[in-house]
Amino acid sequence: MARVCQVTGKVPVRGNKVSHSNIKTKRRFLPNLQKKRFYLAEEDKWITLKLTTDAIRTINKRGLFVVVKELRAQGQHI
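and the corresponding structure tokens:
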């Protein structure tokens, strides 16, 4: 699946588009994904992550190294 956040795991969800006359048709709600480069000072290298804006706020709050360490513990290659 291409549209998946690497940190939060958010994926597209399905729902209905509702018209003014209340006719419902299927649609997808996509996560707000951004491709972002971070400098990992502990390893002296740049990493690129595909993140939601919510995950970018999480990295700002908790720190990049902590988040990357948890991702590697889950088995992701970064």
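(Above: one complete record from the training split.) The domain at 1-16+24-78 is CATH 2.30.170.40 (Ribosomal Protein L24e; Chain: T;).
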